[in-house]
Structures are given as structure tokens and as C-alpha cells.
Amino acid sequence: MADLIRKHRCRVGSWWRRLPPGRQALLVLVHLRRNKTFAGLAAAFDVGAATAHRYVIEVIELLAELAPDLQQASDPHLDIEGVPDPNTSPGSTPTHPA
């Protein structure tokens, strides 16, 4: 995650931040894993609450850019819960009610 942040900072021309990329990544992980408030993150990482919020949102947006969209991620042979759909699985015959 730190490399992703580092590359993003270079891409947008951000030459200075309060936290280096590794610490920003840790801040985000603490927020996601421990559900720490922004005020708690601010105190723990010696930044302002607004900065903690901005750092979290920035990384979540970067991670979202990496994720496939729903169309790419969906398997046509699975239903919404990931269970094989007998109507679309290879080699099956549709079982539509009459």
C-alpha cells in the first residue's frame, strides 16, 4: 500500500506530506482494522483530524481504482451469493419453471 501511495504522490506532484507513505498506509490500516475515529487517529499519528480523514479517503479511492468493476468481477455461472447457478453453469440444462 505504501508503494501505491508513493506512486500517487509522484503522479499528483505532492512534494511534502506530514506523514511518509508507510505511516499513511499504517494510519489507514488502523482505521480499517480497528475502526479508530479520525480524532483517535489524529492523536496517535500526530496529525489533525481533517488530515487523518483526508489520508483515509485518499487511500480508499486509490484502492477502489485497482478493484475490478462489478461487470469484470462477476462470474456468469455464480449467483449473487457466489453459489453455482444451475441455470447458467456449463453442461447444465436450464431448470426454469413452466
Automatic annotation (TrEMBL):
<dbReference type="InterPro" id="IPR027805">
    <property type="entry name" value="Transposase_HTH_dom"/>
</dbReference>
<feature type="compositionally biased region" description="Polar residues">
    <location>
        <begin position="86"/>
        <end position="98"/>
    </location>
</feature>
<dbReference type="Pfam" id="PF13613">
    <property type="entry name" value="HTH_Tnp_4"/>
</dbReference>
<feature type="region of interest" description="Disordered">
    <location>
        <begin position="74"/>
        <end position="98"/>
    </location>
</feature>
<feature type="domain" description="Transposase Helix-turn-helix">
    <location>
        <begin position="17"/>
        <end position="68"/>
    </location>
</feature>
<protein>
    <submittedName>
        <fullName>Transposase family protein</fullName>
    </submittedName>
</protein>
